[in-house]
Amino acid sequence: MEVLTAISKVGIYVIFGVTLLGAMMAVTLRNIFHAALSLALTLIGVAAVFFVLRAEFLGAVQILLYVGGIMILVIFTVMLTTRIGDRTIPTSNHQQWPVLIGALLLLLYFVRMIGKTPWSIKSELAVVSAVQIGKSLVSTFIFPFELTAVILVAILIGTVILAKSDEGEEKS
Amino acid sequence: MFGIGVLKGMAVTFKNFVESYYKKERLTTIEYPEKRLAEKERFRNFPFLIFDEKPEDPRCVACDICAKECPPQCITIVRAQDAQGKPLKKPATFDIDYSICMNCGVCEEVCPFDAIFMDHEFELAEYGRFEDLNYTIDRLLKPKEHFMKIRPTDATRIEAELKKKENAKKAAAEKAAAAAKAKAEAAKTQASQVPDTKPETKPNEPAQPADPPAEAK
Amino acid sequence: MDQLFVHIDQAIIHWAQAVLPDWMAVIVAMKIPIVAIAIFGPVTMMYLTLIERKLLARIQNRFGPNRVGKFGLLQPLADGVKMLTKEDIVPEKADKIAHLLAPILIVIPALLVFAVLPFGRNMIAVDLNIGVLFFLAMSGTTTLFIFTAAWASHNKFSLLGGMRSVAQMISYEIPFVLSVVPVLVVVGSFSTVAIVEAQPGLHWFVFTPWGAVGFFIFFICAVAEVNRTPFDLPEAESELVAGFHTEYSGMKFALFYMAEFMNVFTVSALVATVFLGGWQGPILPSWVWFLLKTYTLILIMMWFRGTFPRLRADQLMGFAWKFLLELTFVNIIVAAIWYEMRSPLNHLTAAAILIVTIIVLFQFNKTEIPKKRIYKYAYAD
Amino acid sequence: MMEHTLISKPDFDTQTLEVSLGPQHPSTHGVFRMNVVLDGETIVKLKPVMGYLHRNHEKLAENMSYLGSMPYTDRLDYICSMTNNFAYALAVEKLAGIEVPERAQYIRIIMAELTRLVNHTLLIGFLLNDLGAFFTPVLYAFREREKILDLFEEVAGSRMMCNYFRFGGVKADLTPDFLPRVKELIQNYPRFLDEFEALLSENEILMARTQKVGVLPKELAVSASITGPMLRASGVPYDIRKVDHYSLYDRFKFRVPIGEHGDVYDRYYIRVLEMRESIKILDQAVKEIPSGDVISKVGAGFAKAPRNFKPKAGEAYGRIEAPKGELGFFVVSDGTNKPYRYHVRAPSFINLTILEDMCLGHKVPDAIIILGSIDIVLGEVDR
Known about the structure:
The complex is a heterotetramer.
Chain A: H1 2-28, H2 32-52, H3 56-80, H4 96-116, H5 130-137, H6 142-171
Chain B: H1 4-19, E1 47-51, H2 65-69, E2 75-81, E3 87-97, H3 106-110, E4 116-118, E5 134-135, H4 137-140, E6 141-143, H5 144-150, H6 152-187, H7 194-201, H8 212-216
Parallel strand pairs in B: 1-6
Antiparallel strand pairs in B: 1-4, 2-3, 3-5
Chain D: E1 17-21, E2 33-39, E3 42-49, H1 57-61, H2 70-74, H3 81-96, H4 102-131, H5 136-156, E4 165-166, E5 169-170, H6 178-200, H7 204-210, H8 218-223, H9 229-233, H10 240-243, E6 256-258, H11 264-288, H12 297-304, E7 314-322, E8 325-333, E9 339-345, H13 347-352, H14 355-359, H15 364-374, H16 378-382
Antiparallel strand pairs in D: 1-2, 2-3, 4-5, 7-8, 8-9
Helix pairs in contact in D: 3-4, 4-5, 4-11, 4-15, 5-6, 6-11
């Protein structure tokens, strides 16, 4: 059975690698469309990580919302930018060095925090079912849940108002 | 009620689906290479030339009328000559470029000698675009029987007319010969060209209007 | 009969355990459903093309393919050979990498969703406890690849097709997902197996008021999801030449086709699972019932294709946003009420609420419903 | 017409997209091109480009005998060769003052109305194809058209390029089983139309797609000299069969359906109703057809020797109500056996000029069906 463990380990590292590679490409690629696709790759990779960790619900939602929803919108926006003709954009500017230093500092902080946190590692994976998630959403986390709902409704109303005002202007 | 029209449409297609399995008027397809439709008698495709007894003697007299009247100008005729260079009443070359011909049937209608007719042959695919589709006289000539086979009604009528004409001509020729003989006997001068030149001048005369009602039917 | 394929699976696993080392036997056991799906998916697609061509031909009073093999049974193979040998044309200005990747990637979600379909009793590749959600998530990604293909082709028709695809997907994804919620509420699980087991015998959800409405919405959205007539705007041949796959030829085109037909199958299978009781049914083996229901739905989709003209993009979205979405929301509440009442009254109440909702929605959309016309004559005799 | 302005606000730039629909586009009914400027999918500008199928028809006709052009007129609107023949024959008969026997007139009317059935059936089929129906209506249309084409082949020898009319009559008499078959067709065709309508007319998708799309107002239609079903769909009761009293149309009882809105649905439905009226005309014609000659003596003579046909100097304009609109031939003679001037007033071409006005503000799919509802045949547009 060691073989199987080895294989699954390799698989997990491949997923990690692909996810990180996608993230790297998303920031470095000069072709904005390719960059967006790389971002989609990263998001799928993260979903795969969720699946590996047996958080299937989260993984599926990640794909449903991020890949199926937000990535589409991102690519849609990319397409609708006026720079359709020249499809490469500069990916670097004069702030490279400060950003690099900042990123390194952040990384150091993360490493420290990860080292400090007492991780409780159980031998068995706790499978969280959808029912449990639903119940906790309407009991323990009712306040943030409702707050999110209110914000979303506000956004919806705002969008409708914006769209309506456009129409009015057009008609006048 | 909204949606009824959509359901009605689906009912129609369903009916067509089911009935196509057992109703002939639904599934009208004839599976072509194996089965064929009966050819309509008046169907016309490309023209062919007709000969009475042997292919060396086509009915065509190379009068060039069809070539002149052909709307897309797809007919080329060169008149045959005998050894002395005297024009004969038959074509040396008679080419119809099937790639240009638009099977309108004008040549058939204008021909005063009933020498060119529209064929039923339609499987004429060739590999060459130019030479292979330019039909020369040897590929165009077909016997009288072929015409009789594809268009019996027209053929019997035309043959009957021809026979009548021939008989009349024969009678006229006999008469003329007799007259000529009489004349020759009387004057002993040349009289042999008379029946010769007659058909050549004929096409340009309005001699044809005499038989159109028969033609029309 | 019922457990035929399960027994075959068991037999292979037993054989593997006897012959192969332990770890390989585990891999073999894992691989069996994968291999089965990898074969079943494309073969289904191939013969779905034949079925569709035959069916449409008969609807249109033609014979359909009948030259290659008896009844044209070898036609899919001939098509496959033709597709493989065709020249692969990539437009010069195309985004080469994306142009290549899009058709390959689009097949992946189409194959993945087979994993959560319960083909029969104990016949499921992976019984994920989020099965339905997994399915919806995966089928949602298809649009991304359609859009990639559209963008990469560097063709205006493709681009318009891609734009339509996105707009359509954003519109229909919401009622598509929400129309399953009543079932999830009643069953209390995402698992496809649990959903099927909650509809024993002939107690299919489609026979409840909310189930009927849910089935109607879900099926319409499913048709829209897989871009079939009358919702085939992204590839509308009379408007956009071929939409997003205008610039694809040969095997790449075939891959798009494969994805489309596999999606047709999987989506129909999901509709059958969620609302028509999946493999539940009397007398016949479970997998026969499942395939029967799935193929019925597929044939209905093809029947649609043979009958309907296409909707326009704005009408399509108007239908989704102004009618279907509201109906799904009401349907969720109705399902909850139905579930809580637990008495003979629940059917009546649910039906009454739904009918009122539908009438109200019609009233709201009155201006957009076309009317019949009466014509006058001049020079009447 | 619908006004359309781009959404223009500071900080919000939108770009228009220029798309060339055609000449190889599947829905332009031939080699026709529309240069469309789109805002999103809304059309802000549309420029039709024609001439891909120009075959020099008019100049060719001026260089050949009068009858020599007859087979070429078949190829103008290749769906309805019979009506093309009809209009040309009328023009030349007017020019030369040739009388047409009564039986020939009846035959001509039968052929013209059969052609109308062919054209309208086919048009509806293709319009539905443009609407996105997957070939079902078009194949039903083809199925029925075949029956009429069989009749044409029976009498004229050719299914589409009939070349059947001659100056002063028609080329050949009807075959004995022609009239029984027409009677059978008259019996069966309404049944087909009922089925066709059950499939289409009340289909909500079709109604939603076609109603209020491509509206052509009455005034614009008249000032753009639109003719045919398109004009009548806009509500103008103008039918040359009624107005011009040509041939023997005065003897027949038929009505002229009139639309109200002038949109694509009206144009579709007017054609269905016209087919029903055509069947009425056919029914009367088949019952009343007299016996006699099918071509006048003079005409038959000239059919045998077209080169001798030399109408006296003058000009004539013959027009008919072709399925697509007013089809007119203008012929000027200088006394020789070739026309001095020959002009075709092609309904497809003139109806097409209004395309942009109807399309502005609509979406791309609407433009496709508007083009489909105009009913063009590129052979006639480009000539």
